[in-house]
Design brief:
This protein is mainly alpha-helical. Helices cover 54% and strands 6% of the residues.
Amino acid sequence: MRGTKTPKASTEMTNTENSMAPKTISTSQQSYDRLIDHLVNLIELLQQTPQYNPNENDLKVVQLQAKVTILQSAKKAWIAAFTTYSNAIRMRDEKLYHPDTGIVALVL
């Protein structure tokens, strides 16, 4: 399913380094977190529907709940890995580009 929304003129502006840019907020709900939330809501709906009894094992409620658990743990693992990566990049940039003690400043 795809929903569409007519774009409205934005009146809020955010400061970037050299220009003013309009502030936009996504309403598509296609982020990883929202997709997991939608799947959880769908599973809850299926639990309340007694007619839902598929023949395929992958589509049974128990299997769908297991899939949600796997997706949530993968998301947590990604957050932990990205945090470590982001901190390493920040420390590297500090050592290379600090205006007083960075390697670039010392070489110049």
